[in-house]
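The protein record quoted in full:
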Amino acid sequence: MTKSWRLNGLLTIWLTAWLTGAVGAQSPAKPSDAAPRSPTETVQTFYRLLRERQFAEAFQLHVCGPAVEKLTPQQMGELEPEFLKLSGGIPETLTASGETVTGDDATVFVVVPSGVAANGRPQMVTAPVGLIRSEGRWLIGDRETQALAQAHGGSFFKLSEEGVFIKMAENEDAMARLLVKLLEVEQVFARNNQGRYGTLQELVMRRGQFRDDVAKLLEIVEGGEPLGHVIEIVVTPDRRDFAIYAVPKRHNYDGRYSFFADRDGVRYRNYGGARIEKDTPGNKILN
C-alpha cells in the first residue's frame, strides 16, 4: 500500500504536516476583497495569523476551515491550547525556497529548523507544504481532509482525537489487501472447480479446499461485512467471470473508498459510499 492511504487522527499531526511557511506576508484580506493569493502567500499569511492567535481567520486558508467554522465557542476554547502549541513552535523567520504548481495542486518549499547540529546552530532542512485550489483559492492541505472536514463539521476534531480517522484508514488499508487476497482465492477456487468462479458464500462453504491461512481469512469475511465494509461477489451466469464489490458501511466513518475488483486488479475511489463499477469515472488502480 502507498503512503497516501495513511490518515493520521491526532490533531497535532493532522496540522503540523501543513504548518510550514514564511512570515512577512501582507495583511490578510477576505477572499472576496482581494485577488487570490499565490500558494506561497497563502502559507505566509496562514503562518502569521497563527502566530497572532487569529485561529479562525488562519483556518480560512486551510482545508480544515469548514470544521473550524462549525465549532461552538466552547469547542473552540477546548481546542485553543492545541492551536497555541502549534503557533508557539513557529519561528519568527522562515525562508520559502520556491513553489511548484500543477493544475489545482501546489507545493511550497520552506527552510525550517530540524534539531541542533554539533556546533550548536539549528540544523536546517527543506520541507514541502501541500496545497489545493478550491473555488479559486489556494488552501493548505489535501482534498481528502477537506472532504472529511466538510462532512463532519464541528465534530471533525473530536473524531480525529478519538482515532476514528485512524481506524478508517486502517480499515481501507486492510480491505485493499483483503481484496487482493480474495482475487487469489478465486483463482484457486476456479482451478479446483473446472474453471468456475464462486460467490462469497460458496468460497466460505468450501474453505476446506484452501490452506489454513486462507480458510481463516474466509471465516473473517463469512458475514459479508468485515473491516467496516460490505462485500459482495457477483459471478456471471456461466460462472466464467466474477466481480467483487466492497463499500463502507458508514461513509466517512468506517471508510471513504468504494472498491471494485476483478481479474484485472483492484480499483477504488471516494464515491459517497455507493458502489463503483470497473469503468466508473475517477477510479484509481491499486498499486
User: Anything to note?
Assistant: Residues 99 and 108 are 4 Å apart (CA to CA).
